[in-house]
Amino acid sequence: MQKEPINREQLRRTPAQFSWLDHRLVRGNYLGRASAPAWGLYLVLVTVGDADGLSYYATRTLARMLTLSEDGLVEARRQLIQAGVIAYAEPLYQVLALDRAGLPPSSTPPATATPMPTASPSPRREELA
After folding, report:
1. Is 0.85 surpassed by the pTM of this model?
2. H helices within the chain, ranges in order?
3. Domains of the chain
């Protein structure tokens, strides 16, 4: 198929401060290792990170940006750490290189991602029991 831009007036250009998403996120089957809100967090971290992938934002700030509860943000972060795509040492985040052929730090890929708590109040599991 011959591809042509649909809108030539708004072609993407590489800005001076550039970040990217590695195609291995898809080809290495990373996306199934975390929930959509976790990948939203990853997108923010990739966007704001410096050349070494480092950034620091407060949990409350990131939760507000992503319309997650703070517990939801913590869970998103846990999923990304488990998927092997970020490291975290409060308050510092590091987006990691995907050089291990799609394998997370542990030898076994995590099971399906846990649903994320949202910013709107909802009953906790303990309250439902």
Report:
1. no
2. 24-27, 36-48, 59-65, 70-82, 125-128
3. 24-99 (1.10.10.10)
